Amino acid sequence: MTPFMRQWTSAKRENPDALLFFRMGDFYELFYDDAVTASRELQLTLTARDRERQVPMCGVPYHSVEAYLTRLLRRGYRIAICEQMEDPKLTKKIVKREVIRVLSPGTALDAGIGQEQNNFLAAYFESGPEKQPFCAVALLDVSTGEFRTSEFQGAKARQQALDSLLLAGPSEVLLPAGAEVPGSLEKIPARTRVEDWVFTRDFAVPLVERQLQVRSLEGFGLVGHEAAAIAAGVLLHYVRTTQKNDALHIDSLRFQEHSMALELDQVTVRNLELVEPLFAGQDDRATLFHTLDCCITPMGKRLLRATILRPLIAADVLNARYEAVGEAHSDLVQREEVRRAFEGILDLERLLARLSLDSAGPRDVCALASSLARLPGLKAAVSAMQSPLWRELAARLDTLEDVTGRISATLIAEPPLTMADGGAIAPGVDAELDDLRSISSTGRQSIAAIEERERARTGIGSLKVRYNSVFGYYIEITKANLAMAPADYERKQTLVNAERFTTPELKEYEVKILTAHDRCIEIEKRIFGELRRAVLEAAGRIRRASAAVAEADLLTNFAHLASLRQYVRPALTEELVLEAVAARHPVIEQWMEDTREGRFIANDLYLSATDEGPSLLLITGPNMGGKSTYLRQAAMLVLMAQMGSFVPAQSLRLGLVDRIYTRIGASDNVARGRSTFMVEMTETATILNTASKRSLILLDEMGRGTATFDGLSLAWATVEYLHAETGARTLFATHYHELTMLAEKLKRVRNLRVGIKEGASGIVFLHTIEPGAASKSYGIEVAKLAGLPAAVIERAKHVLKQHEKQERQSVQVETAPEPMQLTIFTPLSQRIVDRIEQVDVNALTPLQALNLLEELQQELKGQRD
Prior knowledge:
MutS, DNA mismatch repair protein, domain I, MutS, DNA mismatch repair protein, Chain A, domain 3, Nucleotidyltransferase, domain 5, 6 domains, 6-stranded mixed beta sheet, alpha/beta
């Protein structure tokens, strides 16, 4: 192979699973299978390096490579950047090349991630016995330095850990090379295998200690949580290996106790559309995050998103937030002073990360300085607040004026994009640099000055100082004046009519002026490197200041929303109640206001997980009437209250919730062999097996995925179980009117119905929730509104009358010391009982069932006669 291809082969051998971007002059080239893949994914023309076209090749310009890298990273590819390590002008041999960085979806800094989102790299690790494992999940956002780990133990540890991992939505997950991939992780496109020896205590834990510069992880809450520490160490190893860098901005680690926050599983986050729409491509305005996002800084937006996904359960912390939000809410002038102070503060965390990973240019550092320069004004505005949380934030907010001053004194106000262009360092920073710049900019004047001085010294008026590419700078004297040449002149070249000389001064000046530009670049890079190290020494201070900025932004955001939309402060109580007066759904209310579709109808809500109850509300009424909105509205109120926000209601009294469960909608999981009904039953099983008395449960139209009697029976039994065993605050929307009878027999069950107004032209949805059970389902009326043909509507009404006539009085509830049972028929003879027992109900078609019912009815009439 040629020397060039030996370089490529060596780099590819070190990174076999990555697309190798190989720098050649002004292009990054790809070869062989890499070229085929890149040409397909990036729509590039595929060429070849040889005439036989056995070496496929394609490439992209180096100055626009970022856009191509982003597209590949979004598709889950790993990319190795092989860079030229020498200036081609300064070597006569082949340029030395090395892989300087490996990009992957989880370590990319510029992968098109929105400023409100984290780009998490995750590690998943299991240890211990199969039935009672220790499962750990570690998460690291390389672009911000956010680093956290958690650990789960027990029979349900694996599912809890996987739920936690999927909830974070990582771009890439690291797994042991010899481990089996859990099925649920198939949703993450980038699953990277790491050698098993990395997932060991002896390797991973010391790596974490060195990164955090501590002798023990006790201060980080990781004593007794070895699996969590190992998962964190795996992430650090992967980042250091791929980035070829110590990642100094990663200077803290948080052990996340899953019992310290309101728990939300992936199903609930999806069903409630908290941060993403339910279906891809839908309007983001359908999400709670979009509705509540009036934050100004990128750090505040990310904190809002994180708080939505992980609300608080500590009453003292929440009350402190309420007080801070309340103070900002009541003082418009001071609130706006704080919000104005956020303007101009860019993404401190990501700018710091770019600097740490040596991918920041002078403009990035100037942007960091410009953002830090806003901190004194923000601190002054925050300091004017009086509540304890505001005073704490003011104390935590380091203004970093020394860092700002160092950057401002080192760099010019508007530097070039990269250091390769030169001219980034301010005048007066380095004397040699100033001298070299002077030489470069005043070269002609300097030569003219030397020429004038030498003419005066020698008395030769025709003396000339000239330059050519062969001999460089020289002094030319005509033959007639040779006798007047000074003794210190060194002969350089003889011409027919003249002699050319040089002097030590001219030689020195030649070296200076010819190398001035390259030397300037070299000095500027050295100074910039020193500046980078100085800023990174303050990395911890910058990250802490960034966290304070984010929290202040979040609090003023909540206050701004409360003032703008008439939200009120929740009242926390020890009682397990959820009591809301004139409550509204925040997302739908704002959507209606934006689209001018009318005014949201407020409704009251009362739930209590005490003996007085009600702990379970059965909600009946037609589809499109507002049952699902009412359910989701309850969850939104709880979420917002436990985020520390005010809520859309006249008043809210809340006993803190430990977990929110939802069973809403229907969806297949065909790839894993699970039908709609199987998915529904699996989600319901999770609720019944894990919910506590402090939980909030939302069940919407349970049992629709199977036969009517099966679904009714399951729904009936579920209500009984929730009432007797769980006792959690529950909203249960149903189309089974038979369930409403349970309110008469179960102490803590109440009926609610959707308000409907019937008229000659059909029904009108009032969107109110009233006490009592709905008289009928109104399904045919809703179908009429949807535009079904009149013939279908009339036929449906006829069939419905037949059903109602045959099934009237068919359901009775028997009370006894045993749990309540649902009996469909009350037999009058043993022969009818035997016939019913012999029938396979699940195998009957609807027509066969109706015929059977008619036969039994006729037989009963005959017996009575």
